[in-house]
Amino acid sequence: MKVGILGGGQLGRMLLQAAANYTVETYVLESDLDCPAAHLCHHFTKGDIRDFETVYQFGKNLDALTIEIESVNIDALDKLAAEGVKIYPSPAAIRIIKNKIIQKEFYKNNEIPTSNFLITNTIEELQKHEYFLPAVHKIGEGGYDGKGVQIIKEPSEFSKGFNAPAVLEKMVNVEKEIAVIVCVNQKGETAIFPPAEMLFDPILNLLDYQVSPARVNEKVLWKAEAIALKVAKSLQSPGLFAVELFVDQEQNVWVNETAPRVHNSGHHTIEGNFSSQYDMLWRIILNYPLGNTKPILPAAIVNLLGAPSYSGNAIYEGLEEILKIENVFVHLYGKKETKPGRKMGHVTILSNDYQELIFQANKIKQKLRIIS
């Protein structure tokens, strides 16, 4: 099969690494010739994944397409699908998820638990909703990795909001943030990865580290899996869906957002689970049986971010020391230049002892710095 990936970042890189296990000819469309995925595919095309003609011309001679980021030209995908190219997930599913306004309305219409929300189009509209605070303002399209999200606790902070179509979500009293990855094959069969528990950097609003399986009680686990499964089934498309959820102080579970692709919260599955999220997506695309999602061992992930105040050619300070630790797996994304907060790689740690996972995660955060 000839399969194309729209986007050539680190998710595309890891998807291509998993593709080496199968007989598949891979194509990547990305505007950056030095992107992480460029040298791992069979065929690379330089171009804008948001441009209709570029996406259409890239995909028209392929058997299937998938995405590694939502900001793609969906009209081109619609035309390709109508001409027989298989799209994973479907253009309709991507269209729902791509826009946070449509995504929230989708949850409401399908009776999927999510926080209360309002839609705003301008800062002036936003300022009329003082009664709704504290809340989170999310831009409708274009946000990623913490960008396009503002926490507004009091009226003096309205100026931080977006003067564009956006969602104002009532803030949830969060105890934990977890993510559940659901796999749906072409027959509609499903497999669910154990939830990952995510801990965020409060300054950068980026994933700091995570552990999996998440430390939640059985009742919360059942709720989370049932809700994530309902999200995936309601999208009515084969593919891989990462459902981000909040667990509140009363142990209720709410959907935060969904990603229609392989996801940061599933990096640990490469070493930590019998079948990784990347292997699973290839099984779906190639119409093979779904894999085994069970964990081999509990895992932790540490994101490797560019150190503050450093921009330029990346230097990995402390890397050799980290590589000496048992059951530690380093993934560098091949990005030549670092800048503050840029995702440069991740480290996976395996252990039966959760305290050991957290200890090693904190050690790696302190010892491994990306400078220039």
Mean pLDDT: 95
Low-confidence stretches: none
- How many beta-strand segments? 22
Q: What summary fits the major beta sheet? A: 9 strands, antiparallel
What is the global morphology? globular
Please give a structural write-up:
The chain has 372 residues and is α+β, with helices and mostly antiparallel strands. It folds into three domains: 2-88, Rossmann fold (3-Layer(aba) Sandwich), CATH 3.40.50.20; 116-170, Dna Ligase, domain 1 (2-Layer Sandwich); 174-371, 2-Layer Sandwich (D-amino Acid Aminotransferase, Chain A, domain 1), CATH 3.30.470. Helix content is 26%, strand content 31%. It contains eleven helices and 22 strands. Strands 10, 11, 12, 13, 14, 15, 16, 19 and 21 form a nine-stranded antiparallel sheet that branches. Helix 1 links the parallel strand 1 and strand 2. The chain is globular, with a radius of gyration of 20 Å.
